[in-house]
Automatic annotation (TrEMBL):
Pfam families: FtsX. It is a multi-pass membrane protein. It comes from the Bacteria. Belongs to the ABC-4 integral membrane protein family. It is found in: Cell membrane. Keywords: Cell membrane, Membrane, Transmembrane, Transmembrane helix. It comes from Nocardioides luteus. Residues 69-179, 515-622 form the ABC3 transporter permease C-terminal domain. This is ABC transporter permease. Its main location: membrane.
Amino acid sequence: MSLFAILAHSLKTLRQSWPPYAGAAVALAGGIALITLATNLLGALGAGTEALDEQTRRQIDDLGSLFGIVASISLFMALFVVSSTFGFVVATRRRELGLLRLLGATPRQVRILLLGEALAVAALGAVAGCLLGTAVTAPVLRILHSQGVTPVLLQMPSQRTAWIIAASCGVTVALIGAWRAGARAGRTQPVEALREAVLERRRPTVVQTLVAVGAAVALVATAAYAREMPLLFALMVGLLLPIVAVVGANAAGGLLYTELAALVGGPVARRDPSAHLARDLARTSGRMTASVAAPVVAILAVAGSMVVTVGATADWSEGADRAALSAELVVEGSEEPDAIGEVPGVRVSDVRRTARVGFAGERTEVEVVDVSSAAATRSLQATKGDLSDLRGRAMAVTESYVTDIGGRIGETRRMRVGDRRIQVRLVAIVPDAPNLWGDIIVPDDLPGIGRRARDTGTVFVSTDAGADVATTARSIRETGAEVSAAAGWIRAVSDQTREMNTLVLWVMLGPAGVYAAIAAVNAVLIGTSQRRRQTATSRLLGATPGQVRRTALWETVFTGAGAIVVGGAITAFTGWLVRQAVVRDVPDAPLTFPWQALAGITAACAVVLLAAAVAGAYALREREASR
């Protein structure tokens, strides 16, 4: 049979096998929509921003890394779900493929047949996904602006690039998934057509075992190195390691998820016959169990790990600020910040100023300080070098800047201040205190910097020895400024940062969570549609329609409980890992547990599983009604 004839036959078989492929098309369309949205978010950063002021453009540019993470998560979820869904669909047609082999089809012809079906499904899913992704982009951009994530309302970019990227990724993933499944299907023996039931392989293949072992080795090595890991590296690991763990867990999913489902279902199975049957089904139906658990594990592990990683970052920032801030009061909103120093009881008034300069080939914001004032109020001190040399053509940088960019004491770099190009020398490296000073610090007598420096609206105040702090604070308030105790100011700034981080995470992970829900429901419906003979046998043996539906519900519940255990374990490991790096860098850093965000993620996963269970039970009910 020619290649053209096989591809033409693919369209005919697709019309016969469309129910499972309908679920695959939905999963593919959702993945392509997710990638389209993420690409549009990145494209919106550069669309129509030329006319904005420099500060606003810088804020928008800073969102690039954030939206890049969104794109990475979207691509990972799409690759993950679409590939497993196509594999699941092909596996459900084992007897049909065995019949084709019995009629003389070669393994190559079976693979081409499946690729032709996948290509047709991919074309339909690509069109629907691109249109859906475009439709949701504008509302998402409005939500981002209304919640303060973006300083201006970003404009919809051209859709050509997004559609090309999303469609090509989606179609490629679908074909790869179909090719992998087709390779297995090509090895289907003709005798499979004569079997009433097929026992699914639960033991991982050699490749799957290697992937799972590699992921386990990575986790063990990371745990052993946790106490020596630099903070920046730990944060990167905290974002990437969950993906490695999820891939490893799903490589062994046919064994891991089935055994966990059987384990958590054991206590209930001893009390309810339907639950007992559900536990056995979850343990023996490896593909369906893994397909339902995989998206739940992925979204719980990735989202939970991001929450604890971002929370640990806020803890580190708060601890570093507490350790450095020695001023008793922090003043904001003063119309004349320089006049704060004249208020009775004020010993040192340290006005925080920044400036925009040209540095390292781009416009960069630097901290402009009076060294003696900053040392008195912000405990500015050097861990390397000497701050007494921070005067004139000199600069200091933070430890994280050195870790990220590099730098050594004594080296000179070119800086552009206004129209002047000057050489500045690195004289000191200082600790990090994100809310007290920036990564690059210059003295207030750097040539030309005085005309470029601008007040940030924050003044750090140290009071006279023996002065009543409350009285001094009231005197400052009489000037019309807002005054906070140093500890309260740090706590308020940290709480605001945590709230914004939580909001951004929900915006980032919301679409991926919806996609995970669709994937889980889709897997249950595909699996349920392939159990007609099994359901009929149960009814012949005396099972009532209610018992059959309860079995489907319990099976999804047991599978979901096992998935939540795996996802929760990955999240807990990531939180422990990042915490080790935080306390190593800042021993007195506070420990905050983002229980609300984690509870919300877990509840969302529970809702996903409940929806999948109800969908499966409803499908069985409809089938009973149609008989």
